[in-house]
Amino acid sequence: MAKHTNKIWRTVVFSGAMLVTPLAVGCSSKKAEPTTPAQPANDTTATPVDNTKAAEDQAAKDQADKDAAAAEEQRLVAEKEAADKKAADELAAKEAADKAAADAAAAKKPRPRTTTKSRPTGRGFILS
Amino acid sequence: MSEDDDDELDVLGDIEPQGRDETYEPTSPWWLSGTPLEAEHHRLMRRRSVPIPWAASGADKLTDAERKRLAGTWMRRSEAEYLAVSTFSVLAIDLVAARAPADVLSLCLRAGIDEVRHAEMCVRMAKIYSGEQNLPPPGMSYLPDDPDAPKLHQALANTMLVSCVSETYATTVLSATRDLTTDPTAQAVLTAIYSDEVMHARLGWSYMRHAIEVGGQGVIEAAAAMLPRALRGVANVVEAERPAGEVTPAVRTHGLMTPAEERVIFSACVREVLVPGFVALGIPVGTAVEDYGDAWANAA
Lengths: 128, 300
Description:
The complex is a heterodimer. Chain A is mostly helical. Chain A contains two helices and no strands.
């Protein structure tokens, strides 16, 4: 018996399943996204000190303008992100509804099967 | 020559699996349509690994009882081969649904054609022993179907059932049977069937490897869930009641084994071929070796 099982093991199973090479389970799943480069750190270079009051006022005004511009930019970004998220949520909800409808329709279709047998029978070559 | 080429030669000996039988004659003409399709059918059926010497059968040297026993078994073989046509057809549907690789699809569909050839050869063999031109009864086989299962999982599970388990066992038992068959006609028919079954079995193991690499853990779990069912299915065939009549030494030379011998072969196939293969692919095998161990093998 070992003669036959050895032959079938080597030529059907080992060869067919390519067991000589290591198995890579789920290797074709989505590749990892490339790592996003880290954002550069804020510039911490010190501003040279100006001792005149006018210069201080101007600097304060410039800073206030800069802060206001940054706040406005932040508001616009947040607004856009909210709009994008809403659109994405709506799209996902629509896709889910479409899939559910398609699944329900598919479930109603007859499948090319028969289900008249409850006892599992395999296909073995009947020898005797 | 590659290692694969060596393997192919080793398993098939001097058989050319893609051979063309130049001595081909219509195998079971009473089963044909009587239309122009017949010519194309013969072209398909001519692809046969070995010529079948139909006239060389030693059936006339057997007793009536021995011929009756052989006719019964070859007729049941024709029924099994005929049902296998639909088995591979349904499996092809599952593979298409899962977008299996093109080579897997083409080989699965070709396997269905091979089974038509096998069924024809088996009814011809039954006629040699009985003198009657019978046909297998109509019907189709059943494969598990779960509309809620992912398509890949169902395709893989049914490939395991049909190809990895059933066809691998068929290949093992045919290999053993050919060794005791000396009647030239029966030997050639079994060899032709065997050479096709090798590819039918290898198809499953290759697809299983592919599916695991594509689908990962979910596929492994689907395969593990199918394994006991697949083994039980083949065991049901091995345990099934057989046609009446003794398997005499003369009958054995025409390609028959006893049910007890088949049990031993299935048990060895589970332990030495199937389980090591599934384990190598990371598929849990549960109590398969114990379920079909010595106690089961010697229960007949």
